[in-house]
């Protein structure tokens, strides 16, 4: 027990020291403007807040702001309507169809005059905070009863399904096929490393912008009455304005999908709502009623026509007390592996896979990134599509995270000699590697990071080694160089798969004349994380049916 506590203390002290050092550096530098000379390396705007890898538990709260209807065993349904009229008559499909859903992630460039060094400093501080949160979640996961309760629930009620299905047709219609299109925006202009998804919630539908996060599960929105809420763009969601809002009763088995209060709140009245409390480890949290609502997204049919699809009975949190810096977002949309995530709830509609393709951060603001639910035949036929198996599933692993098993890394085709245990996920939940959309850079556990950094220093010749921007190292002066020649970099997975990256995915331009390695280190006991900066211009596939991660190099602006 002393050893466990010591590891946690060491981790927090190390991360705190790094954050303090970065902050001092931030105050002692004069900064240059973003390079506009056409370099392919991105000078990016990083998060001004921690992203949220959640630790969920239920609070001892009283969130019963509206009467809860007896929900029985209803499941989410999907209907559709015309885009030109948000309140037009729906025409549901007669049965579930495995159509694909393409959601556009609209990219917005950073603010004019943004200072690259400030951006990198802010991003690194927020990434380190997020990593602390991820690690706290691993530690505290051992004290949670969520997984065991979900397993018991599944055994007791194997025939129940809480996933969306298509509603019976109100009138005879032919099945609708096509791709569902919604908008996802880069948080760059907001000082955030996350991506945002435009969602229409309620009946009639109203627009909200939610942070997209593969490191968390719960979908939630700030709700009226907003007793303690952060500032957001646009009005708060008001359940009274929606005819499709339904509270989940504390007697409903779905209430067990959120952790029990400690001590548990007595569940007495038949219409008593199900309270939830989600804590994200850094002090950010959301508290409110666990409920059902209709989410609306756009469907683009094969002939190019745009229609609306209404996904009914989506489980989400109606947050009345919310704290944290969410950069104008109205809430969060979880894409984690757990049963509460939007990705999991969409599986019965579009199959057990989703993918995204993130454009590079220097792209024009009119260029969109994409998120696609369902099978993407174009991606599956891509000649350079590779797969590696998902890991995890062990005692101590967090069911939300997408683990992959790294064997080593390569620099210029040299397989580096990194101790095998560096990559292992222990039975206590320490270590392991995840792929994450909410972390910006890539972080490798020690001693892997030091070995990788030293390999680059050995192999890079002809460029002046400079003090760029701690903690990013090594950094090089590339003044007057039109085409940089830097070592190749790739990840070698335990099953033999290899992921090779273009140089703009692992070197970052922090000044017009300075580039730095965009990889940092973590303490040995912490997670290794493949962040979204390294995923740019790759089409990333999460195939849950075959338990594998796919990746294909692609110009994401053309997807």
Automatic annotation (TrEMBL):
Q: Which SUPFAM superfamilies match?
A: Acid proteases (SSF50630)
Bias (Polar residues): 53-81
Q: Name one GO biological process term.
A: proteolysis
Signal peptide positions (record): 1-21
By its UniProt entry, which PROSITE patterns does this protein fall under? ASP_PROTEASE, PEPTIDASE_A1, PROKAR_LIPOPROTEIN
Annotated ranges, domain Peptidase A1: 195-552
Q: Does the keyword Plastid feature in the UniProt annotation?
A: no
Q: Name one GO molecular function term.
A: aspartic-type endopeptidase activity
Keyword Repeat listed? The answer is no
Q: Where is this region: Disordered?
A: 51-120
Composition-biased stretches, type Basic residues, lie in: 95-110
Which Pfam family is one of those matched by this entry?
Answer: TAXi_C
Query: Which residues of this protein are catalytic?
Result: 213, 436
Alphabetically list the UniProt keywords: Aspartyl protease, Glycoprotein, Hydrolase, Protease, Signal
Source species, domain of life: Eukaryota
Q: Per the similarity annotation, which family is this?
A: Belongs to the peptidase A1 family.
- The identity of this protein, by name, is Aspartic proteinase nepenthesin-1
Organism listed in the record: Glycine soja (Wild soybean)
């Amino acid at each position: 027990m002393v050893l466990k506590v010591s590891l946690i203390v060491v981790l927090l002290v190390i991360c705190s020291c790094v954050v303090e050092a970065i902050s001092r550096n931030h105050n002692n530098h004069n900064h240059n403007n973003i390079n506009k000379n056409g370099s392919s390396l991105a000078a990016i705007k990083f998060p001004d807040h921690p992203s949220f890898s959640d630790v969920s538990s239920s609070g001892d709260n009283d969130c019963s702001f509206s009467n809860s209807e007896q929900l029985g065993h209803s499941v989410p349904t999907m209907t559709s309507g015309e885009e030109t009229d948000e309140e037009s008559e729906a025409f549901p499909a007669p049965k579930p169809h495995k159509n694909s859903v393409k959601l556009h992630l609209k990219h917005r460039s950073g603010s004019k005059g943004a200072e690259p060094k400030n951006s990198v400093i802010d991003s690194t501080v927020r990434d380190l905070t997020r990593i602390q949160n991820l690690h706290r979640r691993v530690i505290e996961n051992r004290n949670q009863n969520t997984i065991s309760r979900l397993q018991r629930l599944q055994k007791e009620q194997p025939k129940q399904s809480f996933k969306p299905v298509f509603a019976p047709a109100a009138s005879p219609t032919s099945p609708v096929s096509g791709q569902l299109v919604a908008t996802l925006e880069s948080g760059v202009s907001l000082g955030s490393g996350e991506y945002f998804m435009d969602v229409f919630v309620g009946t009639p539908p109203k627009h909200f912008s939610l942070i997209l996060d593969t490191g968390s599960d719960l979908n939630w929105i700030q709700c009226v009455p907003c007793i303690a809420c952060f500032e957001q763009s646009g009005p708060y969601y008001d359940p009274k304005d929606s005819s499709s809002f339904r509270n989940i009763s504390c007697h409903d088995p779905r209430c067990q999908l959120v952790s029990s209060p400690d001590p548990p709140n007595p569940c007495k009245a038949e219409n008593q709502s199900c309270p939830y409390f989600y804590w994200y480890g850094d002090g950010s949290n959301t508290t409110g009623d666990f409920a059902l609502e209709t989410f609306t997204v756009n469907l683009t049919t094969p002939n190019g026509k745009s229609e609306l699809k209404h996904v009914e009975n989506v489980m989400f949190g109606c947050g009345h007390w919310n704290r944290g810096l969410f950069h104008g977002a109205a809430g969060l949309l979880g894409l984690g592996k757990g049963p509460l995530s939007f990705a999991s709830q969409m599986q019965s509609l579009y199959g057990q896979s989703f993918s995204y393709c993130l454009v590079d951060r220097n792209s024009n603001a009119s260029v969109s990134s994409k998120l696609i639910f369902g099978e993407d035949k174009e991606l599956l036929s891509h000649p350079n599509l590779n797969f590696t198996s998902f890991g995890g599933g062990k005692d101590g692993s967090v069911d939300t995270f997408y683990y992959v098993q790294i064997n080593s890394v390569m620099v210029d085709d040299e397989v580096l000699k990194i101790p095998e245990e560096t990559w292992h996920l222990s039975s206590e939940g320490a270590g392991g590697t995840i792929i994450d959309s909410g972390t910006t850079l890539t972080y490798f556990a020690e001693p892997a990071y030091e070995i990788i950094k030293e390999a680059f220093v050995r192999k890079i010749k002809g460029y002046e080694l400079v003090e760029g921007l701690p903690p990013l190292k090594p950094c090089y002066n590339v003044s007057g160089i039109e085409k940089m020649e830097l070592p190749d970099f790739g990840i070698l997975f335990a099953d033999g798969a290899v992921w090779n990256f273009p140089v703009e995915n692992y070197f970052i331009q922090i000044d017009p004349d300075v580039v730095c390695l965009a990889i940092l280190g973590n303490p040995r006991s912490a997670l290794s994380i493949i962040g979204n900066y390294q995923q740019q211009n790759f089409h990333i596939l999460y195939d849950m049916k075959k338990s594998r991660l796919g990746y294909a190099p692609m110009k994401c602006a053309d997807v």
